[in-house]
Design goal:
The protein is of the alpha+beta class. The chain contains 5 helices and 15 strands. Strand 11 (189-191) and strand 12 form a beta hairpin.
């Protein structure tokens, strides 16, 4: 990857950010991909414990949505020397920030953690609907949406979930979002070791509006290998990925 003008973004449902193994893995990802923005969801820690982990990550820009006990939590971390982020709004399912970049101007970033509870997820879609109606700025949404677009994005899952796929697709289409697609392994969440009973789905993704897509026409998403979590990290490169020799 060419890092000269790029702003690599990592989005990852970490399912707990308190362990030393997680911190080691995260620092390796920072080193390998020269990350400038990180979105960590389902951190499951808050308060003093969260502050201590964030200090060890050593990014100078930090915004945290507190976990509710041992559930939830959204962290957005960034390198202030590269860009500036300003918080616009947040809840326990999202955080929206304005990103200021020297070369590309300003755009909006929403870190998503869709609740596994359908009613709460519907509340998230409704909140984002309202924001979309008022917003004309370039806008990227990335994270764990906890929904899939088709049954092809699910393995060994109940057929009744097709209704959820339809509802999620309708929400995407109504708001005029583009799915950024991906390269790499097909599923972002897997659980189970037995091939016959193992479940896998594509719960994590990047969406954007037309203005963001026009601003970053080469943007791509890479599913990294699963490590320390049932979810794989997403690596988003706004300026695309350089083919490797």
């Amino acid at each position: 990857m060419d890092n000269t003008n790029n702003i690599p973004i990592l989005a990852w449902n970490v399912q707990g950010a308190g362990s030393s193994n997680f911190l080691f893995t995260l620092k390796e990802l920072i080193r390998i991909y020269s990350l400038k923005i990180m979105i960590l969801v389902e951190t499951k820690i808050s308060g003093i414990a969260a502050n201590e982990v964030c200090k060890k990550i050593a990014f100078d820009g930090v915004f945290c949505v507190e976990a509710n006990g041992f559930k939830g939590g959204i962290w957005v971390l960034w390198r202030e020397e590269e860009l500036h982020l300003r918080v616009l709004s947040s809840s326990d399912q999202y955080a929206t920030l304005e990103v200021s970049m020297r070369d590309a101007g300003g755009w909006l970033l929403s870190a998503i953690y869709g609740s596994p509870i359908e009613q709460k997820r519907t509340e998230l879609w409704s909140e984002l609907d309202g924001f979309a109606r008022q917003n004309s700025h370039p806008w990227l949404l990335i994270g764990d949406f906890n929904d899939t677009r088709s049954m092809d994005e699910r393995r060994n899952c109940s057929e009744h979930l097709s209704r959820r796929c339809s509802n999620f697709n309708n929400w995407i289409e109504i708001n005029g979002f583009f799915d950024l697609g991906f390269s790499g392994p097909p599923y972002t969440w897997t659980r189970g070791t037995n091939p016959d009973t193992r479940k896998a789905t594509t719960l994590d993704r990047g969406l954007c509006n037309q203005a963001w897509r026009l601003l970053f026409q080469e943007a791509g998403v890479l599913h990294l290998l699963q490590n320390q979590s049932d979810h794989c990290p997403l690596l988003l490169s706004p300026y695309g990925f350089t083919p490797q020799d």
